[in-house]
Amino acid sequence: MASPIPPGPSSVRVRAPAKLNLALRVGPPRKDGFHPLATVYHAISLFDEVQATLAEPGVFEVTTTGEGAELVPDGDDHLALRAARLLAERYAADEPVGVELAVRKSIPVAGGLAGGSADAAAALLACAVVWDLDVSPEALRELGAELGSDVPFALLGGTAIGSGRGESVVPAMARGTFHWVVAFAQHGLSTPAVYRRFDEIGDPPAPADFEVPDEMLNALLAADPARLGATLTNDLQPAAIDLQPQLARTLEAGLEYGALGALVSGSGPTVAFLVGSETAAVDLGVALSADGVCRTVRRATGPAPGARIIG
Ligand code: C5P
């Protein structure tokens, strides 16, 4: 007699990574208000975790703990919950579902590291598994794009070239492991506010066509941190510094202490420093902490995998 099919897990844990934009080229705003981007995404080993537990049909709840949890919007504005609802609407319409999400944050909120996108990506994957849905990775990425420009990359991970408003991602060839020191700022920055400032500054005008630098792609292929450090670039950096002038000092301090390259991550205000080894990362972390130019320092490596089941 055939044995019955075992039920799926009633609870799944997924983690998803923070991202850096190693290059972020930004064009003038489109008709829909979004800015066209050419970017090199790079996932680093700083992860948020989402546990999805089956609940009664129609129940959609979320709790958040950890780094900056008090700053995460409640209820239906929570990106992880929106992700769960969107997935249910599109892929579980015939059979009502419910879920309780527990989000454990290590990625700072409003930090330019796509922490909210990581939560949405992790929630999409975790819910797809606990609800036992038949959704391909491509379909999950398409849903992710509806939730936020960085969500498809949080699902994919690694190093990737992003275009459109950031939602179109293709893996980039990269070799080796890069060592990063990431400096969290005292206060967050709102992404729309940074883009608005970028438009206001408008000097030089945002170019209509642009691409990621070839030297950066070659440095990634060659696993060469010194060359990669020299090519880090972010068009939003002047706007972020304009809104938080102390970031200029943070960047300068890391370079003085020997970083191979430094940049504001995405819309900021987190600053990422590239170094040549784990030892160099420890040394730079200690120096930056002692200098007091930021709230907290973390070490991370990249590339890291995208959203993955961990239990
Ligand atoms: O897509 P996401 O929800 O992350 O975008 C947040 C905000 O950042 C948008 O509402 C928009 O103001 C700004 N943005 C932009 N151009 C992009 C990505 C984001 O103007 N390519």
UniProtKB/TrEMBL annotation:
Gene Ontology terms for molecular function: 4-(cytidine 5'-diphospho)-2-C-methyl-D-erythritol kinase activity; ATP binding
Q: Name one GO biological process term.
A: terpenoid biosynthetic process
Q: Ranges for the GHMP kinase N-terminal domain? A: 79-158
Superkingdom as given in the UniProt entry: Bacteria
Q: Which reaction does it catalyse?
A: 4-CDP-2-C-methyl-D-erythritol + ATP = 4-CDP-2-C-methyl-D-erythritol 2-phosphate + ADP + H(+)
**Residues in GHMP kinase C-terminal domain copies:** 217-290
UniProt EC number: 2.7.1.148
Sorted alphabetically, which Pfam families does this protein's record hold? Answer: GHMP_kinases_C, GHMP_kinases_N
InterPro entries (UniProt xref): GHMP_kinase_C_dom, GHMP_kinase_C_sf, GHMP_kinase_N_dom, IspE, Ribosomal_Su5_D2-typ_SF, Ribsml_uS5_D2-typ_fold_subgr
Q: Does the keyword Kinase apply?
A: yes
Residues reported in the UniProt entry to bind ATP:
108-118
Query: Which HAMAP family does this UniProt record tie to the protein?
Result: IspE
Q: What exactly does this protein do?
A: Catalyzes the phosphorylation of the position 2 hydroxy group of 4-diphosphocytidyl-2C-methyl-D-erythritol.
Q: Which PANTHER family does this chain map to?
A: 4-DIPHOSPHOCYTIDYL-2-C-METHYL-D-ERYTHRITOL KINASE, CHLOROPLASTIC (PTHR43527:SF2)
Which protein is depicted? 4-diphosphocytidyl-2-C-methyl-D-erythritol kinase
State the organism of origin. Microlunatus kandeliicorticis
